[in-house]
Design a protein that fits this description.
Blueprint: H1 2-19, H2 22-29, H3 35-46, H4 51-66, H5 70-79, E1 82-95, H6 98-114, E2 118-122, E3 126-132, H7 136-143, E4 148-161, H8 172-182, E5 187-193, E6 196-202, H9 206-227
Antiparallel strand pairs: 1-3, 1-4, 2-3, 4-6, 5-6
Helix pairs in contact: 1-4, 2-4, 3-4, 5-9, 6-7
Length: 229
């Protein structure tokens, strides 16, 4: 019984490792992985000694993943996605306090009437307010300097606008984030709003980030186009 529990634990840890590495997961699904090499890497990273148990877990998970082409779903979404860029963006980080939210509500009401854009992300300890740089002074005044934790400017916002199916498609976000990370692009903030995946970046990274995301979409379009013939 103890041995079975140990094997189950190794199986769970192996699946968790694969799930946290999208590139490995996709290669397993496409049968492009050397399981012996993968098992040794998992053993090293997860400090597991039972190679046979890891190998069995990898092969069993491969059977499950092979029934569904995870990457193809992601590419279908990206093939129908488009990019939108906004420059001169700032981020105001403030204390997460009900008085701050109340003050921001007043600003929100005015901005809605003027069709200006401001986004607020509420965390456990802080509020992140993403807005046009021209609104920075107004936001800071509304929040109160005593509640400001940090102000960042000279930022850009790149939005990946996707079809509605993205809501039920897993892996799109991780695919894009991994691509940006591999290109050395630092993401300052990120948010998701229905079909929009939003990245806030330093202005200096705008061209590189746009190029990377464009290539993701173009490659997806090319693959989808070939499959139609």
């Amino acid at each position: 019984m103890k041995k079975d529990l140990q094997k189950e634990s190794i199986a769970e840890r192996t699946r968790a490792y694969v799930d946290s590495h999208p590139s490995i997961k996709d290669c397993i699904a496409k049968d492009l992985i050397n399981f012996s090499s993968l098992a040794r890497q998992i053993m090293k990273d997860m400090e597991i000694r039972n190679e046979e148990a890891v190998m069995i877990a990898c092969r069993r998970y491969a059977i499950k993943l092979g029934k569904h082409d995870h990457e193809r779903d992601v590419l279908k979404v990206l093939g129908d996605s488009r990019l939108e860029v906004k420059t001169k963006i700032c981020i105001v980080t403030a204390k997460n306090d009900w008085t701050v939210l109340h003050r921001l509500e007043i600003v929100f009401k005015r901005l809605i009437n003027e069709k200006a854009i401001m986004q607020v992300i509420q965390g456990a300890q802080a509020l992140t307010i993403i807005a046009d740089e021209k609104l920075k002074g107004e936001v800071v005044d509304a929040v109160g300097k005593e509640n400001i934790l940090k102000v960042r400017q000279d930022l850009v916002e790149i939005s990946v606008k996707s079809p509605e199916v993205i809501v039920d498609t897993s892996g799109v976000y991780s695919y894009l984030v991994s691509s940006l990370a591999e290109g050395g692009v630092n993401i300052v903030e990120t948010a998701s709003c229905y079909t929009d995946t939003i990245f806030i970046l330093n202005e200096a990274d705008m061209i590189e980030a746009y190029s990377i995301l464009s290539k993701c979409i173009e490659s997806a379009e090319e693959i989808e186009g070939r499959e139609e013939f």
